[in-house]
Amino acid sequence: MKRKLVTIPLSIMLVSSFALAACGDKETTTPAASTGAAATTATAKVDNTPAAITIMAPLNTAQTPPDTIIKELEKLTNTKLTYQLFPADTYDEKLNTTFATGALPQVVYLKNQASFIQMKSAIRDGQFWEIGPLLKDFPNLGKLKSTTNDNTKVDGKLYTLYRGVDIARQGLIYRKDWADKLGIKPPANMDELFAMAKAFTENDPDGNGKKDTIGIADRNDLIYGSFKTLAAWMGTPNNWGVVDGKLTPEFETPQYVATMDYVKKLRDGGYINKDFAATSKTDQQKLFTSGVAGMYIGAMTDVSSLNKDLVKNVPTAVVDVHSMVAGPDGKFAAWALPGYANVLLFPKSAIKTEAELRKILAFFDKMMTPEVANMAFWGIKDANYTLTDNKAKKTDEEKWTREVKPFADMAIGDEDTSGRYLGIPTIPAQGKADELKIANLKYAVQDPTAALDSKTNLEKGVQLQAVITDATNKYIYGNIDKAGFDKAIEDWKSRGGSKIIEEFNAVYKK
Predict the structure, then answer these.
(1) What does the H/E/C string look like for 424-452?
(2) Whole-angstrom Cα distance, residue 186 to residue 171?
(3) What is the DSSP string of 223-258?
(4) % residues pLDDT > 70 (the chain)
(5) Three-state secondary structure string covering 129-173
(6) Secondary structure element (H or E) that encloses residue 30, with its range
(7) Contact 335, 232 (CB under 8 A)
(8) How much is the pLDDT for 114?
(9) Which residues, other chains included, contact 33 with Cβ-Cβ below 8 Å and sequence gap of 6+?
(10) 379 three-class SS
(11) Could you give the CA distance from residue 41 to residue 372 in angstroms, rounded to a whole number?
């Protein structure tokens, strides 16, 4: 049956037109059963036709990549690959539309942890293949970390492959040249962080005599924008916390309210972009790379790509990273991810048989070999990277971003499970970020519900979270007060939140 395809404006599809020609049938000669004194041979046919695989994934770069890497991956894996890449800012919308029309391809990447939670109901309804029992037949996939696999299971069953992520990568990327000019040291606590944001806004850090800078660039994402990292520094639990022996949602803690007050004070002072709730990730990054904003709170590992675009606009700019910001209680804390950035699923609507599923899993098994993993993550040796002491260094950050990054963003597993090269930093701040993401592990705050399920949360969690997100933004904008926020929490509870608390606690106590 021919799959129905959906096309919407702003979507970007990258289709590899360079498929390997079929290599033909390869003959192998094996001994036949002996009949008397004579033995005969039988010829077994092995189908060596490239497996056709279509993959849908979010695109985190401004342009679709050329097919250079695709052609190399096809050669290494004996496949014909079609990538459907859509802008990350609108990816969830596109994914939902494609899912609703039954037009998902064979492999579907989700955007992040929140997208995965949203898809759990469909997984539970049997719309995706369970792959856990099959992984024993694929030695490289068997190397995936069991703890991370456990965090992606639904009702104890594994349906996903994961893209590994640095567990505690969050921190501050900032303009060191601005800080040096103004005599500001890296912030040791939340008060000093606020003071830096204020100085970057009011004290003319770029020296042009105009009041045209802001302290922090933020976006319309309370998780992967600034808020979640700030909340961790303030001592807020990670989604859920244990209060008096009971699992409690983060927004019912005083630390969450204190974080809202902190961001509200930043916004009221003009030290953060006032329209952050309507700002995309792309526009947030442009505020930093254009020289308008002096601070970017998020994944410190983004420092190289942000620096690359910044120095095009401000050649004299110098960036640095920092993560150890103490909360009001004087303690350090780091928001921790559950071991995966996103996951990929295998729709039954596109994969009709287990035999077809096994062919696709065989492709990903090859993708976890060092040779193929390095091709997907680093690109072509000497063209995209060089090798020194068995470590890779990008030859040109912009070229790598354009040609390789979309595939690196789809690399399953981790550095240690796939055997891909560790990297040599392209700028000093990148090396420091690599060190800090390890140092942060000591202070990592995990989500105690990461491996738990709540039926109501699966069914209504995403819609109910929108109630809290909306109320949080309204509070920061000054449209509601604490009483209004408390009313939103009661609304959350009455519409299913109380049931979520009950169900999580029932499982937690087992």
Answers:
(1) CCCCHHHHHHHHHHHHHHHHEECCCCCCC
(2) 12
(3) TTSSHHHHHHHTT--BSEEEETTEEEEGGGSHHHHH
(4) 91
(5) CCCHHHHHHCCCHHHCCHHHHHHCCECCECCCEEEECCCCCEEEE
(6) strand 26-31
(7) yes
(8) 84
(9) none
(10) coil
(11) 36
Quick one: pLDDT band at residue 269, thresholds 50, 70, 90? very high
Q: Rounded distance, CA 204 to CA 181, Å?
A: 10
User: Cα separations (Å) of 27 from 23, 252, 323?
Assistant: 12, 67, 59
At residue 17, the pLDDT reads: 35
User: pLDDT per residue over 385-434, tens digit each?
Assistant: 999 999 999 999 889 999 999 999 999 999 889 989 999 998 999 999 99
C-alpha dist (Å) from residue 350 to 55, 121, 347, 375, 430: 11, 18, 6, 27, 40
Give percent of the chain with pLDDT exceeding 90: 81
Compute the distance between CA of residue 263 and CA of residue 234 in angstroms, rounded to an integer: 11
Considering only 2-6, 77-81, 129-133, which range has the smallest mean pLDDT? 2-6
Q: What would the two tokens of residue 355 be?
A: 């035999």
- What number of other Cβ atoms are within 10 A of residue 243's Cβ? 12
DSSP secondary-structure letter at 24?
Answer: -
pTM, whole model, 2 decimals?
A: 0.76
Asked whether residue 9 carries a pLDDT value surpassing 80, the answer given is no
* Amino acid, single-letter form, for residue 208: N
Q: State the Cα–Cα distance between residues 105 and 234, nearest whole angstrom.
A: 42
Q: Domains (ranges, CATH) in the chain?
A: 14-22+47-166+339-420 (3.40.190.10), 170-335+445-451 (3.40.190.10)
CB atoms inside a 10 Å sphere around CB 81: 24
CB atoms within 10 A of CB 273: 22
- Paired with 110 in beta bridges are none
The Cα–Cα gap between 312 and 147 comes to 42
Collapsing DSSP states into helix, strand and coil, what is residue 506? helix
| pLDDT, averaged across the chain | 90
